[in-house]
Amino acid sequence: MKKLIAAMILLAACATAQLDVPAGAYDVSGANPRRWNAPISFGEWSTQSVNEGTTRSWLADLGVVQLGKADQGYHLSMNGTAVECHTREFVLGRSGVFVDPSFGTDPLLVCGYDRDGSRSVLTLGRTGRVEPTLRGTLRDANGNALEVRSLHRAIGAALPSGEPFGFELVRGDDRVAVVETINRGQVWIDPNAENRDVLAAAAASLLLFRDPEAGE
Question: Model confidence over 62-79: pLDDT tens digits?
């Protein structure tokens, strides 16, 4: 019952909350509500194929503690960029209270983006903090990296949400891309950014990402 109430509160919040997304953002089609293996699109970008694997999970009782695992893989192609992602997490705990035994050192999400013979990699892990709960990098073949971090504050909100409302990709203090994952979804990409197609593919993979912890 508590999980049901929490889910209802989150849905109500998402219906009214909005992120501070820069002007010129694209509305997303196909992300919310989500249909299994259905295409998504925004602006000039659209997925040509989406293959979402089944989420597999198990929980083993080791006596003193319980050990659990959840993982899912998904693939997609977007405007010539091939994307392969994998979500995996181990948890350790008891009586419904679980922690990440790696304390955030192991990534929760790993995505590879192949375009024109060049490969970029996105990694995302837990921080153990209220805000941002998720943080990582998008790194290209030349070693250039953008920071990726979850967003938890809606416009006008005094307190952060426990669940992310979206993500931002930044270089220093400059935003390069913003992905709103609530409502219908929005994607903003800096018009002057390099590798906009890879940024769009990264946005698509973040729109598809489902945190295993949210499903508990």
Answer: 455 554 445 768 999 999
